[in-house]
Amino acid sequence: MTTSHKTRFHHAAFLPALTLSAFLVGVGGTAIADTTPSAPLEISGKQASIEIVDFMQFTPEELTVEAGTTVVFTNLDGSNHKITVDGAHSGRMSMNKQWAHTFDTAGTFPYACTMHPRMKGTITVQ
User: Fold this and answer.
1) Number of helices and strands (H, E) in the chain?
2) Strands 69-75 and 98-103
3) Integer Rg of the chain from CA
């Protein structure tokens, strides 16, 4: 084996570690592995919940609430998610993190995870 082959082999041995490091570090150096629960959200008034569970599923996918209700999204899934609904965006939500949005007007509001396009649902506000 020539020196160049040893060098390539040496670098190849570190490739899995580098790939793992890149996976564990998010934008801005924030660790993806942070699963510390969010501090409880302080919400007054009506509240409803949507959870992310079972490897990228919203539950419930369809939700009906009264105007003025705050919907709390909770990520109980091992993946990161970014929720968008009614022109609002959650930012990156790691496991056990929460984000809330209040629906003040009647209508039908589709919501989705911008990181996983197949994840979507609808909130109907009466």
Assistant:
1) 1, 9
2) antiparallel
3) 20
Q: Give SS3 for 110.
A: strand
Question: Does domain 47-125 bear CATH number 2.60.40.420?
Answer: yes
* Predicted model pTM: 0.68
pLDDT in tens, 16-39: 443 333 333 333 333 334 555 566
User: Which two tokens mark 56?
Assistant: 């990228």
Looking up tokens 């020196």, which residue turns up? 3
What is the pairing mode between strands 47-53 and 57-59?
antiparallel
Per-domain boundaries in the chain: 1-33, 47-125
| Cα–Cα distance for residue pair 54/52, rounded to 1 Å | 7
AA identity, residue 66: E
